[in-house]
């Protein structure tokens, strides 16, 4: 990390920065030793800086990938991400000028934050269902670490519910959708379901938001009737309707 990755990410070359972040992301994926080493070498603030300040798409994309690999299933890394204004940095991606590249970055950020919020629910479910005493103790500690992060609260404070709602509104006005947009519906929809208790309050009374998932549900129902590939998207938008529609509550 110190000999190759950090010098690459710190270089003046966008190509070397992108390659350094890509190597780090690949090495840290499902590898706790590299995740810990990344934490010890303060790579999280370095990667965040390049998302915020560096406008070369390949650098931004690979830095998000590296952060994703370092933070997944690792609450200590997630804490460092939060402490270094990572959530604010991610939210800033949604304020950048609209472009093909920006759409890809928004998808990467949404997928990462979706994974981190769903991860919290998975940890609680594992603890609830664990029967082995030692494993149950470990699961309880994991839940405690996640609870101490207050990740969902911090996301809400930084406008995440409204950003997700706005993305669905934009997508519902852009029909028909391409593959990347389908992925954005999945990531945004699953995030809204994982954060429904908090987001319901923030999005209450937003008629444009309600209309967006009705429109998407009808759209995916039509697609599903011709192609079973769209079953997941139809089920997801139906669940969003059932969860957020004030009439159905």
From TrEMBL:
One GO process term, biological-process aspect: protein transport
Annotated signal peptide: none
Gene3D superfamilies per the UniProt record, alphabetical: Leucine-rich Repeat Variant
Keywords linked to the UniProt accession: Endoplasmic reticulum, Glycoprotein, Protein transport, Signal, Translocation, Transport
Subcellular location: Endoplasmic reticulum lumen
GO cellular component, one term: endoplasmic reticulum lumen
InterPro entries: ARM-like (IPR011989), ARM-type_fold (IPR016024), Hsp70_NEF-Inhibitors (IPR050693)
UniProt GO MF annotations: adenyl-nucleotide exchange factor activity
PANTHER family with a match to the protein in the record: NUCLEOTIDE EXCHANGE FACTOR SIL1, PROTEIN FOLDING REGULATOR
Family: Belongs to the SIL1 family.
Name assigned to this protein: Nucleotide exchange factor SIL1
Source organism (scientific name): Schizaphis graminum (Green bug aphid)
Lineage, top ranks: Eukaryota, Metazoa, Ecdysozoa, Arthropoda, Hexapoda
């Amino acid at each position: 990390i110190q000999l190759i990755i950090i010098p690459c990410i710190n270089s003046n070359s966008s190509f070397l920065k992108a390659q350094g972040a890509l190597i780090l992301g690949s090495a840290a994926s499902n590898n706790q030793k590299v995740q810990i080493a990344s934490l010890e070498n303060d790579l999280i603030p370095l990667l965040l800086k390049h998302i915020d300040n560096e406008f070369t798409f390949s650098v931004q994309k690979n830095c998000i990938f590296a952060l994703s690999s370092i933070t997944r299933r690792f609450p200590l890394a997630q804490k460092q991400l939060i402490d270094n204004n990572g959530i604010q940095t991610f939210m800033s991606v949604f304020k950048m000028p609209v472009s093909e590249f920006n759409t890809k970055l928004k998808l990467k950020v949404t997928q990462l934050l979706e994974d981190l919020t769903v991860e919290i629910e998975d940890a609680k479910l594992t603890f609830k269902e664990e029967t082995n005493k030692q494993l149950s103790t470990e699961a309880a500690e994991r839940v405690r670490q996640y609870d101490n992060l207050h990740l969902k609260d911090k996301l809400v404070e930084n406008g995440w519910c409204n950003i997700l709602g706005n993305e669905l509104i934009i997508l519902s006005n852009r029909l028909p959708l391409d593959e990347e947009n389908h992925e954005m519906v999945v990531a945004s929809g699953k995030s809204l379901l994982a954060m429904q208790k908090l987001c319901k309050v923030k999005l209450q009374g937003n008629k444009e938001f309600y209309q967006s998932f009705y429109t998407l549900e009808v759209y995916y129902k039509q697609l599903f009737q011709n192609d079973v590939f769209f079953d997941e998207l139809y089920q997801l938008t139906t669940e969003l309707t059932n969860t957020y529609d004030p009439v159905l509550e």
